[in-house]
Design brief:
The chain is of the alpha+beta class and 167 residues long. The protein has one domain: Hotdog Thioesterase (Thiol Ester Dehydrase, Chain A, Roll). The chain has a 5-stranded antiparallel beta sheet with strand order 1-3-4-5-2, with helices on one face. β3 and β4 form a beta hairpin.
Amino acid sequence: MKGKYFEELEIGSEFLTRRRTITEADVVLYAGFSWDYNPEHTDVEFARASIFQERIAHMLLSLVFANGLSASTSILRGTSRGYLGMNWRTLRVCRIGDTLQVKETILEKKESPRSDVGIVKIGIEVINQRHEIVNQGERTMLVAYKPRPGVPQQPWEFVFTLEQTAQ
């Protein structure tokens, strides 16, 4: 499925992802590739004595889930041209067995200094099975304008900033 172009994104539009449950394997694998073996995530007895009374998922694991779940909506598949940044807040812990879903909302659209893309701010909420928001943030993206009929498509490069670099 092709993503939406800048002109097709409407402020206030919401997109819900499918759901994904945090598994034991997710926590173990995250500990391994991040090298974060904090006992709140990896030691059952330590975690039972903690304020959470059980093992919890790594705080950034829900961000990883949000990234993957967001990609599943395909709203910017093939139309995203750059990533300008993100703000992220953790509001609650996630536990093994929690099922997460992401709601994305188009918050803002504006012109950019580049003629081929606009700037889109997307709100992100990660919601658990109890309908609690566990993470909240926003990301700012460069999104392609609709191609004009008869105008050849130009090659493009994915960018991470609008700043011009001196050659």
